[in-house]
Amino acid sequence: MKALLVGSALLVGGSGFARAQTLSVTGTPASMTISGAIAGSQPATLTNNSTTYTVSALPILPKKITAQINTNMPAGVILTVLLVPPSGATNAGRVALDNIARDVVSNVTNLLPQTKIIEYQLSATVSAGVISTSTRTVTFTLVNYP
Amino acid sequence: MKASVFAPVLALTIGVSSTLASAQTATQTVTFAVTAINQISATGSPSLTVTTATAGSQPTAATDASSTWAVTTNQTGAKISASIPTAMPTGLTLSVNLAAPSGATSAGLTPLGTVAVDLVSTITKVAQLGMTATYELTATAAAGVVAASTKVVTYTISGGT
Q1: A10 closest CB neighbour out of B13, B29, B31
Q2: For the segment B113-137, what is each residue's pLDDT rounded down to a tens digit?
Q3: Is the bond leading into B59 cis (omega within 30 degrees of zero)?
Q4: Cβ–Cβ under 8 Å, residues A52 and A117
Q5: Chain A residues near residue B31 by CB distance under 8 angstroms
Q6: Where does residue B98 rank: exposed (0-12), middle (13-18), buried (19+ CB within 10 A)?
Q7: How far apart, in whole angstroms, are the C-alpha atoms of residue B37 and residue B69?
Q8: Are B30 and A140 a contacting pair, CB within 8 Å?
Q9: Nearest to residue B154, comparing CAs of B84, B96, B70?
Q10: What is the pLDDT of residue A21?
C-alpha cells in the first residue's frame, strides 16, 4: 500500500513537472515584403516584432530553445530570429534560420511562464532577384540544456 | 516489497522520466517576398563655362567630372537613359558620360536632348555608388555669347526583367 501511495505521488508529481515545462507562441507575423533600397546600397532590411512566445521550465532541469525552418531560404535572402530571453536565460542574438535546429535561447529556468517578444528580420541582396510570395514554417523546440 | 506492487511503481517512475525528457515544439508561419527594386541617384551640381579657344579652332570644350551617380537594381538587363527638358541653345551641346557599374556597359560621352538617350545598359543585380558622371559642354563660334543658364538632367532606370 505504501508503495502504491509513493507511485501515485510520483505520477501526480510527474504530471506537474510536465506542465511546468511549456513553450507556446502567439500570433503570426505580418507578411514581410522587401521593396525598397537607397541607390547604391543593398535592399532595405525589414523587421517584425509583433509576436510573442511563452516559456517555462524547472529550475533543476534547465532548458534551451532551438529554432529552424522547414526549407532553406532562397539564395541571397536571410531570415533571422531573435527571442528576448526570460529572466535568467540568455539569447544568441539574431540567429539566421535554416533547416538545422539552432540555439536561440539557453538556460531557461523560470518556473513561472514568461511571455517575451519574437523579432524576425528579413534581408535580401540584389543577387536574390525578385522573389514571389513564399512561406516558411518556423519550429521552436524546448529541449534539455546543456 | 512484493513484485506485484513493485512493478506498477516502476512503470510509473519510467513514465514520469519520459515526460520530463520529452521535447516540446511550437510553430509559426513567416510569409515574405521581394519585389523588383530599381533606384538611381545623382549627386553634385556641375558647372560648365566655355571661355577659351585656340585661334583658328572652335572654342575649347568645358568639362566637369565632380558629380557621381549610384544605382541599385535586383533585376536583369536594366538601362539608364537621360534627357533635358528643353533643347540647348543653337551651337551648344551638353553631353554626359556615366561610368558603368560592375557588369554593365557605358555608351560613353553622349549628347543630351529632349528625347531620352541610353547612357548605360545591361545593368544586372547590382548595388554600386560613387560612379563618376562627367559632363561636357561644347560651343561653336556661331553660338555667340550665352548667358548663364541651367538645364535639369533627368536620369531614368528602366527595362529590367
Answers
A1: B13
A2: 999 999 999 999 999 999 999 999 9
A3: no
A4: yes
A5: 29-32, 133-135
A6: buried
A7: 17
A8: no
A9: B84
A10: 87
Residues of A in contact with B130 (CB under 8 A): 40
What pLDDT shows up at residue A67? 98
Whether A121 and chain B come into contact, CB under 8 Å, resolves to no
Nearest Cα of chain A lies from the Cα of B93 at a distance, in angstroms, of 29
Q: What is the reported pLDDT for B17?
A: 39
User: Could you tell me the residue range of the domain that residue A11 belongs to?
Assistant: 2-144
The confidence score (pLDDT) of residue A1 equals 54
Asked if the C-beta of A42 comes within 8 angstroms of chain B's C-beta atoms, the answer is: yes
pLDDT for res B10: 42
Among A4, A8, A11, pick the best mutation site for testing chain B contact (most B Cβ within 10 A): A11
Instruction: Provide the pLDDT for residue A7.
Output: 46
Domain count within chain A? 1
In whole angstroms, what is the distance from residue A105 CA to residue A95 CA?
10
Average pLDDT, chain B: 90
Distance CA B29, CA A139 (A): 9
pTM: 0.85
Here the ipTM equals: 0.89
The CATH number covering residue A63 comes to 2.60.40
Given B9, B31, B74, which is nearest A126 (Cβ)? Answer: B74
How far apart, in whole angstroms, are the C-alpha atoms of residue A63 and residue A57? 6
* Residue linked to cell 543630351: B112
pLDDT bracket for residue A81 (50, 70, 90) = very high
Q: Take residue A7 and report the three cell numbers written for it.
A: 507511485
Cβ within 8 Å, pair B37-A37 = yes
From the centroid of its chain, how far is CA B6?
77
